[in-house]
């Protein structure tokens, strides 16, 4: 079955996380993604985190369905190959520091002149303009300056990091959204290609809800609140008798009443002062204490059973072991069985989102460095002798 992006060619000039995650999503839904890697070591992600026989498990996930070509961008011949690929591409995704592609002679002015319908996604720390554009910016900096770290963690602790590269991932998602909107414009004849300028800082900032107007009008500086949602009550993480935790979201008016009844406090369910969120938020400490007094008398399973019977949203905090064993994840094909080189079986995450008619699929795991160099160059019209000559000159590997 063809994916919804079947027929779309994407050229990836990125490394590590932000640009490669964006192109992974496109590849999962049918796009032909050609990943350009430097000869020798390739993308540094190949050696990040936990390894299997010398290759990162993250790499196999991040680069599934992609074609890898090893091209030396410091050679004229290598640059010419990239230009030829850009001529037939629909999208180029890159995460160089601003000006990096221009120094190579692969800037927007050059590539758009070769292909006026080209869409270029440019992911950087601070964006392509502004006084900070030339600063190095990784996801950690985007998370810090975008506001999310100031609001993450316990009130009595330093700002905390989310346990994954959320800044990079948010930038990737914004890049994909921008690319699809720009592609729609091109494919429907509304206009030519354009640049999608994605900043790590701005991608994080974009999900920070009402942070700015609360500060501007009310002087409110939202800060760390642990497991609670400030101003949305009750919604928090509560301890259980067996040393675990349950997350309970009882913050809509009818759910709050059901929650209070379930924990044996019908008096609070009927209290006019707690009838709406504004009133409850004024007594959030009391309500959290009341719920915790109840949860500490329950095991995790007992608490979840009681809350499910009352139709109150609640859940345990999952580890990866919980996720892999969960029947709902399995029923939704969110845990896929894959095979690594040499035949080693391994579980991998499934594909999101779920499309009813043109779902995404995994055709292969992250490839070996340069695995598709010859086939991609052959499609450009280069014969075996020419490819061998380029390899001898170090332009490709």
Automatic annotation (TrEMBL):
Gene3D superfamilies, per the entry: Crotonobetainyl-coa:carnitine coa-transferase, domain 1, formyl-coa transferase, domain 3
InterPro entries: CoA-transferase_III_domain, CoA-Trfase_fam_III, CoA-Trfase_III_dom3_sf, CoA-Trfase_III_dom_1_sf
Transmembrane stretches, start-end: none
Keyword Membrane: no
This protein's UniProt keywords: Transferase
GO MF, any single term: CoA-transferase activity
Protein name: CoA transferase
Native source species: Methylobacterium tardum
